[in-house]
Amino acid sequence: MPESFSKEVTIVNELGLHARSAAKIAGISQKAKAEVRIVRDGTAVDAKSIIDMLTLACGKGSRIRIEIDSASDMNILKKIVSLVESGFGE
Amino acid sequence: MPENKEIVLRGIAAAPGICIGKAYLVDREGVNVIRRYHLADAELEDEKDRFKTAVKKSTEELRSIIEETPEDFREHAAILETHVALLRDKMLYGKAIERIEEEKINAEWALKNVVSELKGMFSSMSDAYFRERAADVVHVSDRIMRNLIGKERVNIKNIDKRVILVATDLSPAETSQIQLERIKGFVTDGGGVTSHTGIIARTLQIPAVLGLNNASRIIRNDDIIVVDGTDGTLIVNPRDYTLVEYEERKSRYERQKSLITRTGRHSAATKDNIHIQVMGNIELPEEVFLVRDNGGNGIGLYRTEFQYLQSSGFPSEDELFDKYRDVVEIMAPHPVTIRTLDINGDKAASYTGSLDEANPALGLRAIRYCLTRPDVFRTQLRAILRAAAFGSVRILFPMISGLNEVLEAKKFLAQAAGSLAEEGKTFRADIETGIMIEVPSAVVIADLLAEEVDFFSIGTNDLIQYALAIDRGNRYVSHLYQPLHPAVLRMIRQVTAAAEEKNIRVSMCGEMAGDPIYIPVLLGLGISELSMTPQAIPAVKNTVRSLNMGECRDFSREIFSKTGDREAREFLDKHYGYITEQIYFG
Hints:
The structure holds two protein chains of two kinds. In chain A, strand 2 (36-40) and strand 3 (43-46) form a beta hairpin. Helix content of chain A is 31%, strand content 23%. Chain A has helices spanning 19-29, 50-54, 74-85; strands at 5-10, 36-40, 43-46, 63-68. Chain A is built from three helices and four strands; from the N terminus they run E-H-E-E-H-E-H. By secondary structure, chain A is α+β, with helices and mostly antiparallel strands. In chain A, strands 1-4-2-3 form a four-stranded antiparallel beta sheet. By secondary structure, chain B is of the alpha/beta class. In chain B, strand 7 (224-228) and strand 8 (233-236) form a beta hairpin. Chain B is globular. Chain B starts with 6 loop residues before the first strand and ends with a helix. At the A-B interface, helix 1 and helix 2 of A face helix 2, helix 3 and helix 4 of B.
């Protein structure tokens, strides 16, 4: 069982976790060595899949948790967190 | 090779006739005809590669579009970047490849299934923004599909062999795309007698069995199927002797049909010598020939919307007059019943400014619309009165729900006549004026309305829809659309009783009037004119000749005691069920 790390963040941008912002997360996650998940209200989705993330329908103000399975992906976790917190640079 | 087993399915007999031929599956969206086939294990790798190549090609296409996008359209380019990422999304790309491998099916079918699942998932989301993301997925997958099918892409527009069309459902837009002369028959999972496909099939006399639920999943492309639109039977992979049996049934049907057509011009009187006027409904002026050739005693309903929907602005009085005059002259001395514009704000929106109506069926349409647009209404009324000088014209106002609408419409008509007289134009003012009875309130006040008009025309399609609160296009409730519902029969009787009292005529112009099985009920209830799709005229006339009016009256009194549409239907089938068989097979 791999060790998991996670961090909770709030979606702050107007449009929420929409197609383009999800594409940005997927772009970062694709470089991860292990799984990266976005969890909202107990539902976990693959952060490498835009479609999967869209199914969470996260509007502005949603709390999400970003999870990684390998310590070597710590950098990925940090990048996603700062991307979400910056409102995806919108 | 596995033996193909004969499968018999029962659906709704939506258009009579029998055809035997190859099945042609049409995609749900109707645009692409996507074939489904199974693959051998050894072919799976190649199939996956074929899919990957199509995705790669799609990526390249999008990349080059992005490169060509000017700086100013950065926003648009960003959406395309998202689409590039979506192309490789595991929920789409990964799932499709999985599907090819697990189900051993071709890439097109795998992709199609994955996309419809994703669409279903998105459409159930509560937030509108996320719900609409299905569009992005569809957009991306359409591109892949195009590259998969490549040059061989089949479009519903280009079907060039005689096939039987099999679909989950067909929208009006799709049926309008099909080159119908190429289609031998229709088979759909959804739909019913009164669905758009059903109406089209009957008009073109193409056999149709609809409402089969899962036919499109059972039938494969190029399967031999038998469609029997006379009783709703569909047979997949018929055995030899089934084929022989149906070839024979088909020729009996065709023999009887030509016999009935030959007698189409003979007059229609019941055995006890009561004459019934059997007329045609038309939409395009050219259809007047169909009415004449099928032996129609006139036109009971000339829908005039077409000219308004065709042109980019409202047609001029002269344009309208020219067409009306053609129809009136060709039909003379028989009457032509011209219904005034039955357009809704929605359809008129392209040149009258957009109307945002949540429920157009209950909105600003037909007479309501015309009374708010005196300019539009007056132009049409003048054209009708001018055409009336060339034959026998009756005018029909649609969607009347109260007496004031009749009075106002008649005032407009009188003003139109007055203005034509002033200008010294040739016209005729003393024409019969009637109203459509299609809103339940008009039934209730039929006695009041009868004072003001020369005839009633019952539009059963809308009347049943409004009275029973059934959208017949809605597959979930269309089975509740029942012409023999006691409420419908009582409404018809209420209208004919009010008309008899005031000594005016009642005609019927809905689907019900063109279906031979209902004729005994309608005649018994006091309908003296029937108007229908022109092709149905010979069969209805044939039926009228086989009936006895006295018996029909007794029968309709008895059917009144039936408490539900099912009981009424059983009673009708018991006494007059032979009509259908007689029409089809002599």
